[in-house]
Amino acid sequence: MRFALALLAPLAFAVALASPSAAQPVDDAGAEDADGASSAGLGAPPSAPSAPSAPSADHFDPRLVLDTGRSPPPPPDPTRSTFSLQGEYQLRYRAMSDLRLRAPRLSAPGATTLGQNQYIAHWLRLSPRFHYKDKASIVAQIDVVRGLIAGDVTRHVEQVRDARAALAWYEVHPRYLYLELPSSVGVFRLGQQGAHWGMGLVANDGERATLFGDYERGSLVQRVLFAATPMGPTGPLLVTIAGDLVFEDSAADLLGNDVEGQDEGEGDRALQAVVSALWRERRGEVGIYGALRRQARERRAKTSPARSTETLASAVIDVTGKFDAPVPGGGAHVYGEIEAAVILGSTSFIPRGPAPPSGAAAGRAPVAVRSVGGAATLGAVHVAGRGRRPAERWGRVVTEIEAGYASGDDDPRDGVSRRFTFDPSHNVGLLLFDQVLAWKTARSATIAERELFAASPEPGIRSLPSKGGVFGAAYVNPRIVVRPARWLDLKAGAIIAEATTDVVDPHSTPRAGGNLANYDGGPTRRRDLGVELDLGVDARIAMGRLVTLQFGTEAGVLFPGGAFDDASGTELADQYLLTLKLGVIH
Length: 586
Fold this sequence. Notes:
The protein is mainly β. It is about 5% helix and about 45% strand. The protein has 2 helices and 19 strands. It has helices at about 1-15, 430-450, and strands at about 80-95, 120-130, 135-150, 170-180, 185-195, 220-230, 235-250, 270-280, 285-300, 305-325, 330-345, 365-385, 395-405, 415, 475-485, 490-500, 530-545, 545-560, 575-585. The protein has an 18-stranded antiparallel β-barrel. The radius of gyration is 24 Å and the shape is globular. The two termini are about 25 Å apart. About 45% of the residues are buried.
């Protein structure tokens, strides 16, 4: 039955989008990039709506680099009210190596692997918009169904959101519902919306496609926002201020659904004050983002009435910039983007290692937060076609390289937390961060919750899983895309990564001499995370002007480094992953 629903859903979605109620796509000359490439932070629009102008022949369009086949949302019509419905249905089959993990010694000593070798998952995301002329807009978005349809489930990693521990294809995830009011002095937004800044290392709305991998839930906030252009509607300066109640992001969940099958905790109460300034020119932009955050969560122990309150008070400073330039002689562009962030504050959300002799983990004082991270991309694209319209030009060959750094923490007991974790929707490859480190940190948190702190809740358990985000690592990620035709992508990438500190599992059993171990119970001094190679093919077939079919496959192999050696010195076996992709988008 579940397989039948999976096969019928794309067809039903295509029929719905092809119905007369679906909005016709607008002329794409000068339209905003459908993937939201602008760094205009906090999800803010660049300015009040204005009439589009035709781009020049040397105009750089982000779709030259990564084309998903999405259409940009239709702009408001100043003469009448309009309604549009956009969306996508995505179906995934994945097969992967069974990952070696540290076994829960007391509850499941034989569970030495993740237990998941293949599965089928899907999601249906709908994005309706209603414009009252150009005076007001209501924007919504919802994942109507999302989850695992069939296949293997994971074992003993439930201390992480989206653990894939049960078949549940029918989950519903609300995302956006906000009111937008443009004016001559700026734009006002009120309601639940996505938050994005720069490359998406800190704030990522979970809508930006990446070359490999899929976007995740993203940063969703209940927000009051005002974005203004103090130098005039077409001026280069965009200033945004916002106040947030965080609905969910990589560190918080308002409803307390971040751990599957658990009921010993409550939701997070995370409040933010955010301000950003962005200077935009024709060939680039540079901006600065600042956020003050206070967060609290109460947790109860499973086996006793003991309670603890996890708290966080932090400040984030994040700078970003990007540029593009035509290559002299025409036919090519160079481009680049950079983001760097520092987080300062104090928190009890951070794991701090084995409990003190008294076992009174809940009474520990908060630790200082001092973490830094950043990434930069530099690339070039050879352009095919010479027209002014985006439909007449595409990227024939794309070459780029991304380098990133996230600070690590090799001593969870020194009173300072230095671990920086990228948002999981900023994908780097397929295996190392999204699979291996994600599940190893999730297993560590689950063991700690069950066996070390079942009677006295340890603050920080739920912050240990990386959820697929880059953390405590430096990496280089060269990538290339070749398009024999506009609709066909042949892509390849590689990752060379090393830990930025000794690799330490905060809740591992201490080794001889009282030293902590890595996530496999081995020595912490080995920092080589390994080398990953990725390949893929993506195809986009337009079915008229309304619907585009996506077909693709991605495959990766990870040759693990010594950072994953276990207590006996046994290396982690090579890891493999294969993904088959089917999508229907409008």
